[in-house]
Amino acid sequence: MARAGLSKVKLTSSAAEMADEVGIDNVTISALARRFGVTDASLYKHFKNLRELRVRVALMAGEEMTDRIGTAVAGRSGKDALIAFADAYRRYALDHPGRYAATQMRFEPSEVADSLGLRRSIELTYGMLRAYRLTEPDLTDAARLLRSALHGYIHLELSGGFGHPRDVEASWSRSLDALHVLLRNWPSHQGESS
To answer: Whereabouts does the entry annotate DNA binding, in residue ranges (predicted)?
Structure first.
């Protein structure tokens, strides 16, 4: 029997909480139904399948993370913006590991076509990088490098991959210093063939 008051928003929010508790791969329609004391079938009235539920969690998480980053970088540029951006990105991932993992899913264009949060995330990233006087295609290359560097560091940190006694915060800070130097001295794009 379906419980009154269930909505996509409420269910997505609960699935996001569950992702942080047990990991996005363990968020299932059945587990979410148990959380609300309803049958699986009652949730299929809200989601056509598990993929839709996980995509909704990812999009919600992406909007939350983008809001944090947007607040952090407001009024900043150059290295200050880079550090604020990276710190907000990392803090969100550490605070919400399951939601963050969901944001790393591969999406079909149709699944994210209407996502204002994703569009805003791209605009924030490119806006911050434009302060380094980058233009296309270097802008896209730098955005990919930035995402790879931040995600790689965070993934290793979350999985306990930093066993060396060197302080993780100190290494993070030095990594951002290095990214800033690299972005400021980005190699010019000349004569690259497709």
So the answer is: 28-47
In a domain, 68, yes or no: yes
The model's pTM is 0.91
| 11 located within any domain | no
CB 94 within 8 A of CB 157: yes
- Tell me the pLDDT of the chain (194 aa) as tens digits: 345 589 999 999 999 999 999 999 999 999 999 999 999 999 999 999 999 999 999 999 999 999 999 999 999 999 999 999 999 999 999 999 999 999 999 999 998 888 888 899 999 999 999 999 999 999 999 999 999 999 999 999 999 999 999 999 999 999 999 999 999 999 976 655 54
- Is residue 148 in a domain? yes
